[in-house]
Write a structure and sequence with these properties.
This protein has two helices and nine strands, in the order E-E-E-E-E-E-E-E-E-H-H. It is an alpha/beta fold. It comes from Trichomonas vaginalis (strain ATCC PRA-98 / G3).
């Protein structure tokens, strides 16, 4: 068991379960994890952001994030080969903020079967650094002073 309460295999390659009663809103998957098992995050209603490091993760199981009603942002790294059916069903706030790093037609189809709408890749201004337009960028004058003083 990790300090977050998540349960991993002894070699830390498989993540079995994250405690649904956890009050954490942000979770970072350990480096080296290859598989998120079926239902691992099911009904984790407090989670808002999950970071999955690129490189090792290859599999997200069926219903892995099912019922994560407050999940707003997740990155699906290019190393993923399989996403199980229903992995993101009943995640109503994933209407934007999903970053998909692989754009093959087979991967996009798999993402849709996992319960994600393709519109979920849209920019979410409330938790992103991206700017909609170069003309909408504004920085307070106090920020310039801080940079100059450093």
């Amino acid at each position: 068991m990790s300090e977050t309460g998540a349960i991993y295999s002894h070699d830390k390659r498989n993540m079995y379960v994250y405690p649904p009663a956890s009050t954490r809103v942000y979770f970072i998957l350990l480096e080296g994890v290859e598989r998120i098992e079926n239902g691992a995050f099911s009904s984790c209603s407090n989670l808002e952001v999950v970071t999955i490091p690129d490189g090792n993760i290859k599999y997200i199981g069926e219903n892995a994030f099912r019922g994560c009603i407050n999940l707003k942002q997740i990155t699906l790294p290019s190393s993923i080969n399989t996403i199980g059916a229903g992995a993101f069903t009943y995640c109503p706030l994933l209407s934007c903020g999903v970053i998909i790093q692989k754009s093959t037609s087979a991967f996009v189809q798999m993402v849709q079967q996992a319960g994600l709408d393709l519109r979920s890749q849209l920019h979410c201004s409330q938790f992103s650094c991206k700017q909609n337009s170069i003309y909408s960028f504004s920085l307070p004058m106090s920020s310039y002073i801080v940079f100059i003083l450093m």
